[in-house]
From TrEMBL:
<keyword id="KW-0808">Transferase</keyword>
<keyword id="KW-0012">Acyltransferase</keyword>
<protein>
    <submittedName>
        <fullName>Putative acetyltransferase</fullName>
    </submittedName>
</protein>
<feature type="domain" description="N-acetyltransferase">
    <location>
        <begin position="12"/>
        <end position="153"/>
    </location>
</feature>
<dbReference type="InterPro" id="IPR000182">
    <property type="entry name" value="GNAT_dom"/>
</dbReference>
<dbReference type="Pfam" id="PF00583">
    <property type="entry name" value="Acetyltransf_1"/>
</dbReference>
<dbReference type="InterPro" id="IPR050832">
    <property type="entry name" value="Bact_Acetyltransf"/>
</dbReference>
<dbReference type="InterPro" id="IPR016181">
    <property type="entry name" value="Acyl_CoA_acyltransferase"/>
</dbReference>
<dbReference type="GO" id="GO:0016747">
    <property type="term" value="F:acyltransferase activity, transferring groups other than amino-acyl groups"/>
</dbReference>
Length: 153
């Protein structure tokens, strides 16, 4: 997928520059939330067969990433993050649309996500894409630092 010089593609292996983007994501979320409320999947888990992981690039440089874990009954959005170079350019929306399209093709009934309340822009993006608040799912528990959202596909 290409739009306005931005390419979005599935990447099965985490390249060093994508790892650096994920490290920036870790630091960003560590500043917002306490460790027990950060539910970041390990980078190595993003290369698992049940994960579809997308990378957004501008002129070949990784500027955003995110994917979903196929749980069979649903897909769980994981590690969506846009670095400073990609912000304000709809990179998050393009990544999410690629994830939604792929999950629909995989015939998943819905996508779910956990996010923190200190990210109003992300919450607004998810709502604009049809996600609605729901309760905890999977191994998650109620947490004042967690919001749970779901979109029927």
């Amino acid at each position: 997928m290409t739009e306005t010089g931005i390419t979005i593609a599935i990447e099965e292996k985490i390249a060093p520059e994508v790892k650096a983007l994920l490290d920036a994501s870790d630091a960003f979320f560590a500043d917002l939330y306490p460790p027990e409320s950060n539910h970041l999947v390990d980078v190595s888990a993003l290369e698992a067969a049940d994960v579809t992981f997308f990378v957004a690039r501008i002129s070949g440089r990784a500027v955003g990433c995110g994917g979903y874990l196929n749980k069979g009954q649903y897909g769980e959005i994981k590690r969506l993050f846009v670095g400073s170079e990609g912000r304000g350019r709809k990179v998050g929306r393009l990544l999410m649309q690629a994830i939604i399209d792929h999950a629909q093709q995989a015939k998943l009934p819905c996508l779910k996500l956990e996010m923190g309340p200190s990210q109003p822009e992300a919450e607004a993006l998810y709502q604009s894409l049809g996600f609605a608040e729901t309760g905890p799912f999977g191994d998650y528990r109620e947490d004042p630092y967690s919001l749970f959202m779901e979109k029927t596909l």
